[in-house]
Q: What sequence folds into this?
């Protein structure tokens, strides 16, 4: 059973860069049938898909975040990462990493437990 | 970008009730519609993918239907553990892959 685990600072100052890593265990990240995504959820609000990275390193970002967002993959460490720069309070959210699987209509069939990131001075 | 509109945003129901949640897409997405359950403080859990295919381990009281732009999640007999928030999400061709705004199911 694949497991995903987010890690990174829980508090980031405004205008700085939010950095998170998702470590994947129980399966290889280096597979063509999976799309490794980041999804966030502001407190008390709904889910927002923000981007994915493919095993090849190809990425796709939500257009409204494209100018601030970078997602990368390290197949040697079986992990992928998110960097969001110039953060504001609006970026405060629980950040989830998740696996999209092309065998199940690209649905997100495995999720990390989520990590709360607060943007505050 | 494709947008998803869920209704209702919340509902109150009793154990044993039949519950229906709808999700409408802003354009034709075929069967590329997935449903998730999220309990408070937890990550979402995949219930149904491809509009109507039950994920392994999900109870058969959950069912999905629809295609094109209109989709439905039905819980045939609501159980105490089903009180949660439900989200639809599309995975049609090119991202961004949006979620609906969610439907909270609570106890009447």
A:
């Amino acid at each position: 059973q694949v497991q995903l685990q987010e890690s990174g600072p829980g508090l980031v100052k405004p205008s700085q860069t939010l950095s998170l890593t998702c470590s994947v265990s129980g399966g290889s990240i280096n597979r063509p049938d999976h799309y490794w995504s980041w999804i966030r959820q502001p407190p008390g609000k709904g889910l927002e898909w923000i981007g994915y990275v493919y095993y090849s390193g190809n990425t796709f970002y939500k257009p409204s975040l494209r100018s601030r967002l970078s997602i990368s993959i390290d197949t040697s460490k079986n992990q992928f990462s998110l960097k969001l720069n110039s953060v504001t309070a609006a970026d405060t959210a629980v950040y989830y990493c998740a696996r999209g699987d092309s065998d199940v209509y690209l649905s997100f069939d495995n999720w990390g437990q989520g990590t709360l990131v607060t943007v505050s001075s | 970008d494709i947008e998803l509109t869920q209704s209702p945003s919340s509902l109150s129901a009793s154990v044993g009730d039949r519950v229906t949640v709808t999700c409408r897409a802003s354009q034709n997405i075929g069967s590329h519609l997935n449903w998730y359950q999220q309990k408070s403080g937890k990550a979402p859990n995949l219930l149904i993918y491809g509009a109507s295919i039950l994920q392994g381990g999900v109870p058969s009281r959950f069912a999905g239907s629809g295609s094109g732009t209109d989709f439905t999640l039905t819980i045939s007999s609501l159980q105490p553990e089903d009180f949660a928030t439900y989200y639809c999400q599309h995975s049609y061709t090119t991202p961004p892959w949006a979620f609906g705004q969610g439907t909270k199911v609570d106890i009447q």
Remarks:
- The CA atoms of residues 23 and 77 of chain A lie 8 Å apart.
- The two ends of chain A are 39 Å apart (CA to CA).
- Chain A touches chain B through 23 residues (CB under 8 Å).
- The longest strand of chain A covers residues 93-101.
